[in-house]
Amino acid sequence: MSTGLKKSWIAGLFAAFTASLCCIAPLFAVIGGAGSASTYFGWIEPYRPYIIGLTILVFTLAWYNLLKPKNVQKDNCGCEVQKKSFMVSKKFLMVVTVVSALLITFPYYSSLLYANPKTVPINGTVNKKLASVKFSIEGMSCEGCTSHIDGGLTGISGIASSTTSFEQRMALVSYNPDSITADSISRKIRKIGYRNKIISKK
């Protein structure tokens, strides 16, 4: 029983981590400076609902097996068998369940972990005439990816602002054409880890 419970929470925790790996990877990429790593796990996104369902099923079975009534085991002397270890206790399963819930919901709060992009002066002034370029973005797997892109473009010389939409799979960037070109911005986005294509320029 204890071995089965241990396998259950390990499987559940692994499934929860896998379900959100497509959004956790970009954060690791920012921390580690490996932008292209964020696209390696984008393929997981279509399967995310199924993996979440599997996680819920595994933990439901684990809790059922732990909480269902059972006879107290005794040895040949009539003494109760030694208590189970913490690894197969209710408290530990509760901790693992909470951690798994945090992993599953990671895409909904991951943007809070990225630095908020700020509009910065361009070459010491904000009065220069700005141009804008719209990109189609490939490789985004959750809302956290928008912060990954906008945060990665923030502070680059010549870029005034960046607004990325996960729903539309697009990014709108305002920039100073005297300092940077649309093609250069496209290369910057690819370096961050997302394939893109210029849709329009103004």
From TrEMBL:
It is found in: Cell inner membrane. Residues 131-197 form the HMA domain. Gene3D superfamilies: 3.30.70.100, bacterial mercury transporter, merf. GO terms for molecular function: mercury ion transmembrane transporter activity; metal ion binding. Coiled coil: none annotated. One of its GO terms (cellular component) is plasma membrane. It is a multi-pass membrane protein. Keywords: Cell inner membrane, Cell membrane, Membrane, Mercuric resistance, Mercury, Metal-binding, Transmembrane, Transmembrane helix, Transport. It comes from the Bacteria. Pfam families: HMA, MerT. The chain crosses the membrane at residues 47-66, 92-109. Belongs to the MerT family. Involved in mercury resistance. Probably transfers a mercuric ion from the periplasmic Hg(2+)-binding protein MerP to the cytoplasmic mercuric reductase MerA. This is Mercuric transport protein MerT. The gene is merTP.
